[in-house]
Every structure is written in structure tokens, then in C-alpha cells.
Amino acid sequence: MRVLQLTSSSAGGVARHAHQVADLLARPPRRPGTLQVDEGDQVILAGPPDVLAGAPVPGAVVDIADRPRPSDVVALARLRRLAAHADVVHAHGLRAGAAAVLALRTLRDRPALVVTVHNAPVGGAGVRGVAAALERVVARGADVVLGVSGDLVERMDALGARDTERALVPAPARRVAPGAAPGTATLLALGLGQGERLVLTVARLAPQKGLDLLCDASALVRDRVPGVVRWVVVGDGPLEEHLQARIDAERLPVRLAGRRDDVPELLTRADVVVSTALWEGQPLAVQEALQAGAAVVATDVGGTAEVTGDAAVLVPPRAEAIADAVVRVLGDDGERDRLRQAARQRAADLPGPNDVHRQLRDVYSRALGHRC
């Protein structure tokens, strides 16, 4: 099968998932318990240059940005030429999905179109309005729409999408040696002294991640937990300057650690791993925390509960609720141990590459049938 994977510019998990899907289709995983490997598809990954960097399959530049701009006319023409040679176009995100709908309309023998919706709109009225318009275009023009969480699937159903399903978005497995932990120098560099407690958040520094909530919660935790608690945030993004200003002005016990390569080791060392997101689909950072056997506290938003099941403490996206849960887990060794064991069990039950490959083959077959 000739498959064109398409994504617009993305600094989050969308591009990572597009890379994962492209690699699975081109080099299918071995079926469990057998030596059989299915024949791979002919896959091209299309998107802006930053998305194509490190792609596991051949790439083609189609520069669709996260906001409309005049050069989209050139991108649509380029996309139309690429799509004319594909059996299936699989677009990731509303911008890429809407662009694919517009580009494919003029093709006589058009390929099937699958769109994965990765995010709910978080922001002001303007952001939500643009997203609503793109959602309508995708719902009416795609053969199959996948949503990364149940609420997104329901949203697209309500807009009249003809065929919907919850997408499978597993985090890449990261192998960590048993007992692995960051060294003393690393902990000191993060501001963590002997015997101090580590609360860890791994997130892009963007509005969706609820980082002002994190700052509010950190102040409450500091005032209620004996000893010193360091809340380390791993990640970068557009809110870095704003957050650092808050941390400095309010003397918050938060350290912005930037992007790091030792996240698995930090997850094993953390006393609590916290997600303060305002919305999530299938949060990769939470999945990685479960894989590491971490005690997790997370806001009960979007598809987070679909990922964690009972293996995390889920709370409303309010600073008081987050702080209450963190304080409770820090103060109860038995609860931390229970959560860590539940995390490892839950991680073993989450979907993996074989599940994703099976789902996509089924979805593409349905989409081709709808097109006909």
C-alpha cells in the first residue's frame, strides 16, 4: 500500500507519533510468538522541515504551519501532487487534516483520507473558533477520523464524521536498568540535596500543560510538607520566560530543567510524578511514568484516565486538589508503594506497536471502502 503520512509543524507529541506510525507501516513489527513479519508499505512522511528531521522513512516538504498563511497555497499544490500517487493519506492534527481535505477534493481518483485529531482547543475565543471550523472541515471530508481520547471521538461523532475510532498512541518503550538512578552530580545540578523530596513533571512549557496551576500547587505543597520538596519540570517551550519570572518573584520551589536525556532515570528517582495538564489525549509522559513504575498524580482531563486506569491518583485541574494529592502521596509510604506497583501492572496492559499496526491496517481498509 502507498501511504502518505502528513503533519503540520508540531513541537509536541504529534510529530513523534507521525514518525512512529510511519516506521511501523514501513517496517511492521514481528507478530508475537512467531517469526513472521508482514511486508511493509511504501510510506512517505510529508510536513515542514522540522518535522522531517530524523524521519524513519523518505520525506517530502509540505510546509503547513500551525496557523493559516499565504504560503499555504503552495503547500496545498505540493500536497495534491503527492496525494495523487497514494492509496491512503493519513493526516495528523486539524490543520493537516483540513489541508488534506481541501487538496484531495480536486483529484479525480482520490486516495482514502484518514485524519487523527490529537488535541482539543485550549485557549481564547479566537483559537477555539478556528479549531471549530477546522473540525467541521475534517468531520465532513475524512473517510475515517481517529481521536486520541474518547471525548475527541464523541466530538467528531457529533459533527457528523462518518466513521470514528479511538486512536492508539503508545509511548516508545524506554529501557532502564533495574535500580538505575541519576547520579549525585545530576541531583545537585537540579537543586536536590541529601534527603530532599523530588516531585517531577515532564511537559512542554505550553498553555495546555497547566503550568500556572503547577506553580500555585507548588506553593501549597511547600507550606504543608515537612522538610524540603523540589518540584523539577523537565521540558521547554514558549512559556519558559513567564514561568521563570513567577518562580523568581514568588520564590517557588520549582526548577525548570529544560530538555533532558535522562528522563527515565529521573522518573525512577522521583517521589511523585505529577501532570497538571488542562487537557491531554494519551499523554506520553504519563505513559512513560507508568513504564518506570512511578507514583503518579494527574489531572483527570481528556483521555488521561483512559491511560492510567486505577494506577494513578486523578484529581480535578485545580491547584488545591493537586496539592492535596501530592501531599498525601508524599506522606504515605504505603500509598506510594501501591501506586508504583499499580503503575508497572498498568504499563504492561497498555497497547504497543503491534496493536497500533493492526488498528491502522483495519482503519485504512475501511477508509478505502468508504472512498469506493
From TrEMBL:
Residues 192-346 form the Glycosyl transferase family domain. GO terms for molecular function: glycosyltransferase activity. Its EC number is 2.4.-.-. The keyword Magnesium does not apply. Keywords: Glycosyltransferase, Transferase. Residues 12-170 form the Glycosyltransferase subfamily 4-like N-terminal domain. Transmembrane segments: none annotated. This is Glycosyltransferase family 4 protein.
